[in-house]
Amino acid sequence: MSKLLAVGTVAFDAIETPFGKTDKILGGSGTFVGLAASQFDVQTGIVSVVGEDFPESYLTMMNAKGINTDGIEVIKGGKTFFWSGKYHNDMNSRDTLITELNVLENFEPVVPDNFKDADIVMLGNLHPLVQASVLEQMSKRPKLVVLDTMNFWMDISLNELHDVLKKVDVVTINDEEARQLSGEYSLVNAAKKIHKMGPKYVVIKKGEHGALLFNEGNMFFAPALPLAEVFDPTGAGDTFAGGFCGYLTKTKDISFENMKNAIIYGSNLASFCVEKFGTERMQELTQEEVSNRLQAFKELTQFDIELS
Ligand code: AMP
Predict the structure, then answer these.
(1) What does the alpha-carbon distance between residue 166 and residue 27 come to, in Å, rounded to a whole number?
(2) Which of 35, 60, 227, 306 is 20 to 30 Å from 156 by CA-CA measure?
(3) 82 CA to middle of ligand 1, Å?
(4) Is the whole model's pTM more than 0.70, yes or no?
């Protein structure tokens, strides 16, 4: 079975949307990536860190889904990373209210021996130095390295981010972050500039407006499935990335053509993530639901025009 190694935060989130408010619930970029990837027949391992306050039951839940958590270090007496965000009425924009790094402050990731030869590495949203350290520990160059990041890291460690970007194949980033990173408003121009920073493939996530894939002159667009109700968008971007990587790991095909399918799989999984608070929907998701919605996705985008 092919292996996917993901690094990212395993966190407590407190979320406020027009539909309600949560106390500290399970979240984190690594958690969402892992849960999305667990939908595929691949071996997924997460590298992260949590504090002593992190319930064992969350790790047990991940293990039950086949996610290897040997790389999640538990720091005695430490406090888990905490993020709090509030969404506006349109759900497309949010304010970060609190980011407490806690145990992330001094985190030195350790890749478990049996994941050092992973086929695909997903450098999920985390400090760029931690992302780089994971890559350095691999025993061989993975077939594909995918990186996700956000404005927080661009603001506080842009140079380190540029260093790690030189070593990756694919970057997944949202539209506002692509504009911030490139200094270009047009997403086509932003992708061109990001290509020059290293990644051959640039995926720009546009929330409810879908995702764009750029590869040196080639372009592909996938819509997001229009949903009657978006309950909580937290983790949709990470779920998308986890689905994208999970699909590529399973199919062992990293061509541009297959990446188009990976984008559809990622978008499909993200459409479930937003239906409930936090990780709730991803925890209960069945393969049957996933394939039924894939069919709906296909119908949404299929048309038959004869070109003369
Ligand atoms: P997304 O909605 O896909 O951007 O991801 C939201 C998740 O990212 C939440 O579960 C947070 O715990 C996590 N998160 C928030 N800020 C950061 C950060 N600066 N670094 C890593 N993960 C973060």
Answers:
(1) 29
(2) 35
(3) 9
(4) yes
Distance in angstroms (rounded) separating the CA atoms of residues 238 and 242 = 6
The percent of the chain in helix, strand and coil, each rounded to the nearest 5, is 40, 25, 35
Q: Name the DSSP class of 89.
A: T
Helices (H) and strands (E) in the chain, counts: 11, 14
Domain map (residue ranges) of the chain: 3-300
Q: Return the CATH superfamily for domain 3-300.
A: Ribokinase (3.40.1190.20)
What mean pLDDT, rounded, does the chain reach? 95
- Ligand 1 pocket, residue 232 CB under 6 Å: no
pLDDT-flagged residues of the chain (< 70): none
Atom of ligand 1 at shortest range from CA of 153: 19
pLDDT digits (tens, 9 = 90+) for 115-171: 999 999 999 999 999 999 999 999 999 999 999 999 999 999 999 999 999 999 999
Q: Looking at the chain, which runs of residues are DSSP E strands?
A: 3-7, 11-17, 20-21, 25-27, 43-51, 67-75, 82-87, 94-100, 120-123, 144-148, 170-174, 201-205, 211-215, 218-222
Q: Measured from the CB, is residue 101 less than 6 Å from ligand 1?
A: no
Residues in the chain: 308
